[in-house]
Amino acid sequence: MSGSGDAKLCSDIYDILERCTNDEIAPIVNVLVNSSASALKLTRAFERHAPDHGKYADHIGDEVYRLALTALARTDGERPTYSAMLEGVSKQVGLSIDVGDSAKSEANLLNCFASQHILTAPIKERQRIVEEAGAAASRAASGILSSDAWQPFTSALLQLGYLRHKLMDEGRLPVDEEVRTDRDLVSADDPANALAIYMEGGDPVLSLATLPADGSGWLEVNQNTKVSGLLYPLLEAIQPVMAGVQMLRSDTLWQEGAKNATASIVKAGQQGITKSLGQVPVAGLVGPTAVLVLASAMIEQQKLEQIEKSLAEIKASLSDVSKFQKGERRSILTGSIRYFQQIAESVLTGELAEEVLHSLERHEIDLMRVQDHLIEETREQIVALRTVKKEGWGSGKFGKAIQDQLASIDKAYDELFLCIRARACAYMLLCAFPGRDAGKRSRLNDIKHALDTFSPSGDATVALDHDLREKLQAVSSLEMKSTLLSQENMLLRRAMQGKANILAGLSSASHEPATEATPLALNIKLEDGRPIAFRTFDPTPDRNLDPHPELVDRAS
Question: What CA–CA distance (Å, rounded) separates 126 from 338?
Answer without folding.
Answer: 43
